[in-house]
UniProtKB/TrEMBL annotation:
Transmembrane domains' residue ranges: none
PROSITE patterns: BURP
The species this protein was found in: Sorghum bicolor
Protein name, UniProt field: BURP domain-containing protein
Keywords recorded for this protein, A-Z: Signal
InterPro entries: BURP, BURP_dom
BURP domain sequence ranges: 116-338
Signal peptide start and end residues: 1-27
UniProt-listed SMART domains: BURP (SM01045)
């Protein structure tokens, strides 16, 4: 026990050193000039793509209010998105995946809240009725700190974050580790990432966009996130004001998992094409709130999804029918590839 406590104190001390050495983190308010390794990394990996505000907030939160010093309850929160829906809906014999599908306690709730919709609904002037629950999202740890946190060692991790081994939180953390360690389903690429840098790198590997320093025609990444408040959105009609199609037909979805700090589960299935949009919406009710811009992904091929998937009932289709779309929840990320024009 003493050794675990010493390890925890060493990680906290390392966090203090990292924060003290950070001149600027993604435009952190009040910081002086200068570029941190994270800023340099993002600008090189995603040139021309600004860091989504929600992601910058979670990065700042990981420095200003680190989960190593402040306890964040580990719950099956709304920001889990449809990771369980699309990932566990695929037919197969993987017992862990079937267990995950059975544990999708909120799938029916999401369907009732208008979570799924048809691609044909994404047109200016169209009205959509949906809602999002408030999201309790843990902060994103600095990469140097996340590397020192015992991600795969459950007892060590529980001790580091003062989580009782017999608690519901411990069971949720163990389940997240199980999902991260489970084998991918047929044709799927997957990875769990514990920092923003490793999340971007996972997406780059899946999309094959690494490129080389002397190849100025290599493809590069873009990233998108929904700009909705962490307090969620009430169930009401929203009018679409603008729709923008983002590049590519293969996309990586990175979903925050229940954990003491932000852990992203990134996955894609190259053989199943997708389309991604940025959708600007405003409540059609007077005083219903400001406009929000949501990232939406449409799954064009659902032929191997389970027939019991609630999305099919919601959009009145069946496996292999019309594309099934959904918005990305708070704090989650979408990645795609874009061609970079040669400069020679």
């Amino acid at each position: 026990m003493l050794a675990l406590e010493m390890h925890r104190l060493a990680i906290i001390l390392h966090l203090v050193v990292v924060v003290a050495g950070a001149i600027r983190v993604l435009g952190h308010p009040g910081d002086a000039g200068g570029v941190t390794p994270l800023v340099h990394f993002w600008e090189k990996a995603l040139p021309g793509t600004p860091v989504p505000e929600v992601i910058a907030d979670l990065v700042h939160k990981g420095i200003d209010h680190s989960p190593l010093a402040e306890h964040y309850p580990v719950t099956d929160y709304g920001a889990r998105d449809v990771f369980f829906d699309t990932n566990y809906a695929v037919a197969g014999d993987d017992i862990k995946r079937k267990k995950g599908w059975q544990r999708c306690r909120r799938c029916a709730e999401d369907a009732k809240a208008g979570f799924y919709f048809r691609e044909t609904q994404l047109r200016v002037g169209s009205t959509m009725t949906f809602s999002f629950r408030p999201a309790m999202v843990a902060p994103i740890l600095p990469h140097a700190v996340a590397e020192k946190v015992p991600f795969g060692d459950l007892p060590d991790l529980l001790a580091t974050f003062d989580i009782a081994p017999s608690s519901a939180e411990a069971a949720t953390v163990a389940d997240t580790l199980s999902q991260c360690q489970a084998l991918p389903i047929d044709g799927e690429h997957k990875a769990c990432a514990t920092s923003l840098e490793s999340t971007v790198q996972s997406a780059m590997r899946m999309l094959g966009t690494a490129g080389t320093d002397d190849d100025d025609s290599a493809t590069t990444l873009w990233a998108a996130a929904s700009a909705l408040p962490s307090t969620g959105l009430p169930l009401q009609p929203y009018v679409i004001q603008a729709v923008t199609t983002l590049d590519g037909d293969r996309h990586v979805g990175c979903h925050i998992m229940p954990y003491p700090y932000a852990v992203y589960f990134c996955h894609m299935t190259p053989a199943m094409p997708t389309k991604v949009y940025l959708v600007s919406l405003r409540s059609s009710i007077s005083g219903g709130g400001p406009a929000v811009t949501m990232a939406a992904i449409c799954h064009l091929d659902t032929s191997n999804w389970q027939k019991a998937h609630p999305a099919f009932e919601m959009v009145h289709t069946q496996p292999g029918g019309v594309p099934v779309c959904h918005f990305m929840s708070y704090g989650n990320l979408l990645f795609g590839e874009k061609a970079v024009a040669a400069t020679r």
